[in-house]
Amino acid sequence: MAEQQAPRATTNRSTTPGSDTFKDFISSRWADRSEPTPSPREQAVYAAARRSRLSAQRPGERLVVPAGSTKVRSNDCDYPFRAHSAFSHLTGWGSDTVPGSVLVLEPVADGHEATLYFRPSAGRDSDEFYANPEIGEFWTGPRPSLAQVGADLGLATRDLAELDAVVASSDERTRLVREADDALTRRFDDVHAVVAETSGGASPVDLVAEGDAFARDLSELRLVKDEYEIAQVRQAVAATGRGFSDVIDDLDAVLAHPRGERLVEGTFNRRARADGNTVGYDTIAAAGDHACVLHWTRNDGPVRDGDLILLDAGIELESLYTADITRTLPVSGRFSDVQRLVYDAVLDAADAAFAVVRPGIRFREIHATAMRVIAERTAEWGFLPVSAEESLQPDHQYHRRYMVHGTSHHLGLDVHDCAAARRDLYLDGVLEPGMVFTIEPGLYFQPDDLTVPEEFRGIGVRIEDDIVVTADGAENLSVGIPRTASDVEAWVARG
Fold first, then answer.
1. What digits encode the pLDDT tens for the residues 110-156?
2. Most buried one in 145, 300, 347, 363, CB count within 10 A?
3. Same CATH topology for 36-220 and 227-494?
C-alpha cells in the first residue's frame, strides 16, 4: 500500500514548508522515545474468548472486521472517530482504536489465526509526521507501535500496508463486515468482481447476503454479555447517575436561561467527558410538552417552573460500553397531582415488567406486561373507547396512542445493541443469564390531543432502567438512581 495521502489537504491554502533544508531540520534532533511494553488490558482475555466462539461458528472462512475510518462532518472536518462495535467486541480496542484498523481471522486447521492490521507510528523522517493533517503526528497525535498494541491486546499485529495482500487474495471464503468501511468494501468487491468474471465466484448479490449473515452472527454474539461487559455497563450506569445529579445541581441556571434544555445537555455532557469517553447517544433533554416527542434531541427550549423535564441520557466509557437511563424530574421539586398520577402509572408499568424478568421467558413478554398496565390505567382514566382487555387485543391497541414505542432493547457496545440479530433470537428470544437490556415504559399526552382532559395535555413521562438477567431473576443496575415519585422529589430538593 502506498503511503496514504491527505486528499482533503488542499494546496491552495497550504503554507507547509517544502524545502530540503526544512525537511532535514524538522526530521532531526528528536529525543529517543521509550516504548514500554504494556501488560494485556483486562478485556483482552474476554475478546479472545469471543473470537474463539466466532471461529467455531464459521470454520474455513476468512473473517474481516474493520474498525472503520473517520467520517466527514463538513468539508475537511471529521466527526470524532468511533470504532465499529463488532471490531471493538472482538479486539478489546475501545476509544483509543487507530482509525482504519482491520481485524482478520485467517482460517487454519484448528480454527483461526487473528491478526490486527493498523497504521503504526510514522518516523520523524517522513513527510506524514508534520505535513499530513489527517493522520500526521503533529496534527492528530502519536500512534502506538505494532509491538505496543500487540502486547496490549494480546494479538498478532501487522502494518496496515500488508492488508493489500489479504484483499488481493480474497475469494468466496471471505466474509466482510460491509458497512464498517465503505472504501475497504469497494476494494474487496473489485477483487471479487474479477474472480467472478474469470472463475465464476460469488455474485454481488451473494456478497451482500453473505455480509448480512456475517453481521447478523456478530450481532447475535453480543446477546449474552460476559462478566467484563456487565461490569462496564454497571460503571457506565454509575457515571450516568452522577450526570443526572449534576443536572439537578444546575437547575437554577437551567431555569434562568432561555434555552435551558441546552444547559441540561451541556451539564450532562460535561460529566460524560469527565467520567467516560462521551455520551452513548444524543442526549434527550425534553422539558414541558417537548417530553411528548420521543426523540427530542434539538434541546433548544426553555425549562420553566412547574415543568417536567424528561432526561434520557447515557455515558459511554472508554471501552465504548454505554448506559441508557431516563428519569422524569419535576423542576420545581414537586409533582402536581396529575403529573404524579401519570408518573406513578409509568412506574407501575416498569415495576410490573421488571417483576417478570427471569431466565426462560420470552423477551416480548416484558413489553406485553408493561402494556397491560398502560392499557389498564388509560382505560381507568376514561381515555379509551373500549375496556383495557379489548384494547389489548391485537386488532385494537387503542392504548398505544399514548405509548407507541417498545418497552425494551438490548444494551451494550451500542445503545440499541444486537440490532441485526434475528427476530427469533431477539424479540421472540428466550432470556438467558447475562443478557442486558432496558425497561422503559412511558406515557405521552400530546398538547393537542383531544382524547384526554386538558390537564393531561403536554405531559410526557418515561422511566428507563438498565437490567441484567441473573441465574434466578434479574438485577436493576440503575435502581440506585432515584425512581419513585417521592424519592425523585427528595433528589431534586437536595440539589
1. 999 999 999 998 888 888 888 888 888 888 999 999 999 999 999 99
2. 363
3. no
32-65 pLDDT, tens digit each: 888 888 999 999 999 999 999 999 999 999 999 9
Residue 212 CA to residue 64 CA, distance in Å, equals 13
Number of H helices, E strands in the chain: 16, 17
User: Which residues on neighbouring strands pair with residue 286, listed in sequence order?
Assistant: 310
Please tell me the pTM assigned to this model.
0.95
- Asked if residues 125 and 20 have their Cβ atoms less than 8 Å apart, the reply is no
**Domain ranges, ordered by start, for the chain:** 36-220, 227-494
Please check whether residue 226 is in contact with residue 208, taking contact to mean a CB–CB distance below 8 angstroms.
Answer: no
**CATH number for the segment(s) 227-494:** 3.90.230.10
Q: Is 204 helix (H, G, I), strand (E, B) or coil?
A: helix
Has residue 4 got a pLDDT over 80? no
pLDDT in tens, 189-215: 999 888 777 766 667 778 889 999 999
CATH number of 36-220: 3.40.350.10
Provide the H-helix boundaries in 298-384: 337-355, 364-380
